[in-house]
Amino acid sequence: MIDVRHVTRRFDGVTALEDASFEVRSGEIVALLGPNGAGKTTASRIIGGILAPSEGDVLVDAVSVRQDPNTVRARCGFVTDQPSLYERMPLSAYLEFFARLYDVSAPGARAVELARLLGLDDVLGKRLGAFSRGMRQKVAIARALVHDPPVLLLDEPATALDPEMAQTLRSFIVSLRARHRAILLTTHDLDEAQRIADRVVVLYKGRVIRIGATSEIRAVGKPSYTVTFAGEPAAAHAALARIGVASDPAPSEDGLGALRFATDDPRKTNSEALRALLDAGLRVVTVTAAERSLEDAYLAILAEARQ
Amino acid sequence: MKWWLIAWREIRWEVFLDRASLLRTAVFIVIPIFFVFSNRGIPGGGAGDATLIALALQSVFFPSLAGVSLIAATFTAEKENGTLVPLLAAPIRDFDIVLGKLLGMVVPVMVACAVTLAAAYALAGVRYGAERVARVLTPELLYALLVLSLLYVVTTGSITMIVAARVRSSRAAQQLAGLVIAVSAAVFAGLGFVAIQVADGWALVAVGVILVFFDVGALEVARRVWQRGEVIGRI
To answer: Predicted confidence band at B201 (pLDDT cuts at 50, 70, 90)?
Structure first.
């Protein structure tokens, strides 16, 4: 549905995006991750037909953004981090205005339908300037959906939303995936990305440095393990150091000591570590694999890129 | 016709609901009417006729100034508030956005110009004699004044849009636009006044033709600087 092909974008000699290529398929949520200035917003603006690429091309629903940007815009719904609403307009007039810009056949009915879908039907006549932050973000989403686009570009949609509202928004995005929308989610919220993204694209200094399924990305780097024991943590640390295993203190309960270590070869290292701890007179209680978050993996990928 | 959608939205929801801009426009309508009202007396002959023409000319130019300051405010506010981004993401041509925004300002300003000119004409008729006013301010001249003010508003509106597209803050835009407006108002008012007085109105036609050419050029430049890539890079 979205096919980004070797896209480069320069602003006054500064390269914001360099030879970026990735895809978002129908019925898929792809999270676009990266630090500030990595080129995420530039990428989503190019895909949405707002910015022209300096080199390369993007196909949205098989339409080239270079050749027919207006058709691409008609097939994309764009949600920005700031709702950016016309504050003097009431909700109904606002949605109708955008419905007309997108050539929706029955703009009034569509405005009512969307307001109902997002739980805003009781404030249709109210001015947008009086809306809360969460309501404003809902309006921005309604605006993006006004023409029922096959592609959604969500740029930090949950910024400044309270946890309950963010959860509601996540559920709504997931429901759109079920309706075969292609969704590109630009976000700094790695927890959100981990929960709903099928795949992840990591950008760093304008380049795509990693693409993969969320589960694959989470598997990046060494697996780590936490061992809990009864005894002195310093003695346990020394025992692991003697066999060449670096360890760090880990949170523990019930008065037990706990250390975390990472290894490329858990079959060999874990049994050696267990033996070293037992030989040092420590009573091992548990050895568990530490679950890695997308955040851990993302930070590891960035650290690797910086090196 | 998407330019009309944008223009109508500006008129309906921004101009009419913005108390500050309404107040500013009202002041620019009242000032020229006050000048007509407060003029102590007009001598007979050519000097008096010139004064009547000057009063009619200022009746259309003052409301025009209000319009130009209006467009400087609305454009930069859109950039600062980010409301331009959803508009740029919509399937509309760059020129539709430029034309829509410009018309959103020009239409209410021209209404204000027409109202002010009509009020000034009526008041001048009461104060200086309806027959004399009708002889000096012919329908052709009044029509020419309205066309001239339309051309002036389009010119300065285009220049203001160009300025608004290139700068980031509304304060900088207002200051630059103010400078442009002050200089252009002096030039156009002077040219218009002189042109009305000489060569049976042909000089006025010449000024109009020059303005038309200038407008076409300014609109073309505005269209170029309002290309999505240019504008979005400065938001």
So the answer is: low
- Amino acid, res. A214: T
pLDDT at A80: 83
Q: Which residues contact A135 (CB under 8 A, 6 or more apart)?
A: A120, A123
Q: What is the rounded average pLDDT for all residues in chain A?
A: 89
**Do residues A152 and A77 touch, judged by C-beta distance below 8 A?**
yes
Helices (H), B19-93: 19-38, 45-81, 84-88
Whole-angstrom distance, CA of residue A163 vs CA of residue A103:
35
Q: Which of residues 74-133 of A touch B (CB under 8 A)?
A: 74, 76, 78, 80, 82, 84-86, 88-89, 93, 97-98, 100-103
Amino acid at position B204, single letter: L
Q: Which residue has the tokens 């003097």?
A: A88
Q: What are the pLDDT digits (tens) for B64-110?
A: 877 766 766 677 777 777 888 898 899 998 888 888 888 888 888 88
CA-to-CA distance for B1 and A9, rounded, in angstroms?
Answer: 32
Mean pLDDT to the nearest integer, B111-119: 90
Among residues A60, A120, A47, A42, which one has the least CA distance to residue A85?
Answer: A120
Whether B93 sits inside 8 A of A45 (CB atoms) is no
Strand-pairing partners, residue A203, are A208
pLDDT band at B168; cut points 50, 70, 90: low
- Domains of chain A (ranges; CATH) run 2-85+131-218 (3.40.50.300), 224-291 (3.30.70.870)
Span between the terminal Cα atoms of chain B, in Å: 26
Considering only CB atoms, which chain B residues are within 8 Å of A45?
A: 232
- Kindly tell me the number of DSSP H helices and DSSP E strands found in chain A: 11, 14
State residue B195 phi and psi, 5-degree precision. -65, -35
Chain B hits for A70, Cβ within 8 Å:
91-93
Q: Alpha-carbon distance B75 to A174, whole Å?
A: 37
Residues in chain B: 235
Q: What's the CA gap between B68 and A38, in Å, rounded?
A: 39
Number of domains making up chain B: 1
Question: Which of these ranges, A23-27, A263-267, B30-34, B180-184, has the smallest mean pLDDT?
Answer: B180-184
- Rounded Cα distance between A20 and A13, Å, is 17
pLDDT value at residue B234: 55
Residue with tokens 């509202």: A165
- What is each CA distance from A285 to A281, A291, B153, in whole angstroms? 13, 18, 83
Which DSSP letter does residue A128 get?
A: G
The verdict on a CB contact (< 8 Å) between A103 and B91 is: yes
What is the arithmetic mean of pLDDT over A93-122?
A: 93
pLDDT at residue B164 in the model: 72
Average of per-residue pLDDT across B175-200: 68
The reply to whether residue B89 touches residue A101, judged by beta carbons under 8 angstroms, is no
- Count other C-beta atoms under 10 Å from residue B88's C-beta: 23
CA distance B121 to B141: 12
